[in-house]
Amino acid sequence: MCGRIVWYESREKYVVMKKIVFAISVCCTVCMNLFAQTHSLATKFGDFVLSNMQPGMVYSLKENREVSFTVVNNAEEQRNIEVRIAPPRESQLREGYESVPDVSWVTVYPSFFSLEPGESMDCDLIISIPHEERYQDRHFQAMIVTESAGRPGGAHGVSINFSLVNRIRFSTGRRPEAIVAEYRDRILSALEMEMMPMSLFVRDKVPVGRPVVFDGIGFPTGQVINRSREDYLIEFELARSPRDYGITSGYSVLPSDVDIEILTEKLKAGARTINDVELKLTIPDKDEYRSEKFVMVIVGQVKGFDIPIEVFSRIYFTTED
Fold this sequence. Notes:
321 residues; Immunoglobulin-like; 2 domains; 6-stranded mixed beta sheet; 23 strands; elongated
């Protein structure tokens, strides 16, 4: 009899436990969905590095470097935003840098503001290093923390805070050797990207008088191949001087009244990926454009470097009779 009672209590606890686990699971699912719907805050800044700064001077990134710390609200509701400076944790410190001795060295302006859906704010970062000899030839790092809060009692009846963290590094003197080596490695890594084929000869004749899409399905297109282990942002445009890219003889540069739209204006080339660069071409229906050999050059600029790094593809084709 006692055995039956113990079994009954254990089963009751088991049923209760299942209900608790289920409730926790539902709660976590709701929270994850809520997170996905409301976490739409973004910053545009990256990992910024400054050098040759002098103690005692005041530097404005907007004025001196024409760089802003931009906060974007991609959410569907208003957000109150605060941007503050914090010392880095040990795990956040880059090699060759030390934590900023006082967060008051870096001032954010404005540091508190509201953004409606789709709005953005360009903040200025003002750096002031005390005029003391002990701060000469040193390398400092600080963290920029961007925090947002939804309206209390919003659509989901809650207010959720989010934080984004960016890094800023600055030196009173030359950059440390570690950052120079890091920058060199990033350039060498970016050079592992290419656009293939560099010379694309379209076999089918291109019609005139109607739009044609080069998307790899109807007509072929160039592809960006990233063989490196890093992600890169590339912006594409039509070459202003195609002949600078070594045009094969017998082909003419496209006339100015030909409409070219690069559908892949920006591309995040993930590590070890292949990506199509699509474009739409409309050649006016004129007799002088029929049975002609043309060439266009698509150029991609790899962003994030002080020196120009680009990939390109020459596209040769013949128009229909």
